[in-house]
Design a protein that fits this description.
binds iron/sulfur cluster, mainly alpha, three-stranded antiparallel beta sheet, globular, 5 strands, two-stranded antiparallel ribbon
Length: 275
């Protein structure tokens, strides 16, 4: 499988989470897309001739434009995050040398070239090669991709549960099956459309008035014990009113996982040899 870059894995998608991509109270696809498109347009307007004195004008105009409230005050939302390809499928740094004929303009931004260059989020370290392959292979759009690749618990627990049912690691050549790709993508899409997600949650973090804390699940109040899907439920930003809701959520996750396992076994008749 080789080394997998999770920041800019291919021409179809990329991640920009560490530059503040989702750090808005409303981090819906529509809102975040709108911000990226308008900043990319504005940047192209000011910087098409690469005149560095225009960067300050760009920054002032971004600052003066209306934008939604931030989710967490202490995370910097960099105004130089935008779309870096013509088709606007990849999110990235508009000052990066790769998109500026080799010139690096990141020193004009808040963190500066050195910090931006040296930054690696925990997913780079904690996701193993198989998990990185799964995520980079099955996801095809920047919005969902960035949400998922930075959610270590979600990726690890999903992979672990499937691996447990199969008795060993997933084979990359089997993961290329188009149906399996759709099944895994459907699961990860829960990150975007989970019916039990509570407002003010970003994965396992709860945000309020610009501050955050780790969210908890009140199993005692629901009259039940900790769910075997605890980490996944937290990653999806879940909150439950009743034990029945929790049960429904667990059944949904169970179906997603078995859908994957059954398809995998169908296309790899030797799956049991992994044991
Ligand atoms: S959040 Fe992590 S994966 Fe995403 S761009 Fe930053 S370092 Fe890369
Ligand atoms: S200047 Fe740094 S923080 Fe801003 S978008 Fe580029 S890499 Fe991200």
């Amino acid at each position: 499988m080789g080394i997998i870059s999770i920041c800019q894995p291919d021409t179809e998608k990329s991640c920009g989470a560490c530059c503040g991509l989702y750090n808005w109270e409303d981090y819906s696809r529509e809102t975040v897309s709108e911000i990226l498109h308008s900043r990319t347009d504005l940047f192209q307007h000011y910087f098409s001739r690469r005149e560095v004195d225009k960067l300050a004008l760009y920054q002032t105009e971004v600052k003066n434009r209306p934008h939604p409230p931030k989710m967490y005050d202490d995370i910097f939302n960099c105004e130089f995050l935008g779309f870096v390809d013509q088709n606007r499928r990849r999110v990235g740094c508009l000052l990066h040398p790769m998109v500026n004929d080799g010139y690096d303009y990141r020193d004009y931004a808040f963190y500066g070239k050195e910090l931006c260059f040296g930054h690696e989020c925990p997913s780079n370290t904690y996701l193993n090669t198989e998990e990185k392959f799964l995520v980079t292979h099955v996801l095809g759009d920047w919005y969902l991709y960035g949400l998922v690749v930075t959610d270590i618990d979600l990726v690890k627990d999903y992979y672990k549960k499937i691996r447990t049912h199969l008795g060993g690691p997933l084979k990359p050549e089997i993961l290329k099956d188009p149906q399996l790709t759709v099944i895994a993508r459907d699961f990860f899409s829960l990150k975007e459309n989970w019916k039990f997600r509570k407002k003010g949650r970003f994965g396992k973090y709860a945000f309020s008035y610009g501050e955050y804390r780790l969210a908890k699940m009140d199993y005692e109040g629901l009259g039940t014990k900790e769910s075997k899907y605890h980490n996944i439920l937290l990653s999806l930003g879940s909150s439950f009113e009743t034990g029945g809701d929790l049960l429904e959520a667990e059944e949904i996750l169970e179906r997603h996982i078995w859908r994957f396992v059954e398809r995998y076994r169908n296309i790899d008749p030797l799956w049991y040899r992994l044991r």
